[in-house]
Amino acid sequence: MVFDSKIAEQAAQYLLEIRAVKLQPHQPFTWASGWKSPVYCDNRVSLSYPHIRQFFAESFASLTQKHYSEATLVAGVATGAIAHGVLVAEQLQLPFAYIRSSAKGHGLENLIEGKIDAGDKVLVIEDLISTGMSSLKAVQALEEKKIHVLGMAAIFTYNFEKAQLAFEEKRCSLITLTDYSFLINTALKTGYINAADVDSLNQWRMNPAEWGK
């Protein structure tokens, strides 16, 4: 679910403007999964632009105050959302921790870094939602420590049905600053793509595994 339509439009415009999101329906990218994709997203690029990272932090803070006002701690998903999570925690003056993709192989072998108590109510920050599997793995890591997860907030989601079903099954709420629909509409309005590209881009989102074969 998108948090706010004005924020969603501005966020999409920023991501396109700085090429954090690249749309190439005629020269598709290959994802690690092997999928052919007309879009590539790296939201970490936004950290290089002070006004954009501030916009994201303030938008996340506003989202949190409206939907997750009980939050006592912000947790970022490593590695892409660590910096964004810190910025959000700073905005809200809340403690911060982060969740690794896998436990360290040495020392304390931590999966969760930072101080989190069983009574904490945690908002998880993610930069990008694709299938949702790695994001929900982070949620599971917290829940296994008996930590209450209020939900997840992300910069961007592709709106894949697989991800939507996974979050519903996990009973984890997901709210995003922007999404694939806003991205395509903004790209069309700004001339980044033309009307002939829209159908192909929408077909990819509906069946990414088979698109381009």
Class, according to the CATH hierarchy?
Answer: Alpha Beta
Report the order of strands and helices: HEEEEHEHEEEHEHEHH
Query: Spans with pLDDT under 50 lasting ≥5 residues?
Result: none
Strands of the widest sheet, in order across it, are 7-6-5-8-9-10
CATH topology: Rossmann fold
Question: Per the principal axes of the C-alpha atoms, what is the gross shape?
Answer: globular
If helices are DSSP runs of H or I spanning 4 or more residues, what is the number of helices?
7
Task: Please characterize this protein's 3D structure.
With 213 residues, the chain is of the alpha/beta class. It has a single domain (5-206), classed as 3-Layer(aba) Sandwich (Rossmann fold), CATH 3.40.50. Helices cover 40% and strands 22% of the residues. It contains seven helices and ten strands. It has helices at residues 5-17, 50-67, 82-92, 133-143, 161-170, 180-189, 195-206, and strands spanning 21-23, 29-30, 36-37, 39-41, 73-77, 96-99, 112-113, 121-129, 148-157, 174-179. The chain has a six-stranded mixed sheet, sandwiched between helices. Strands 1-4 form a two-stranded antiparallel sheet. Strands 2-3 form a two-stranded antiparallel sheet. Helix 1 (5-17) crosses helix 6 (180-189). It is globular and about 50 Å long. The two termini are 30 Å apart. The relative contact order is 0.18. The model has no long low-confidence stretch (mean pLDDT 93).
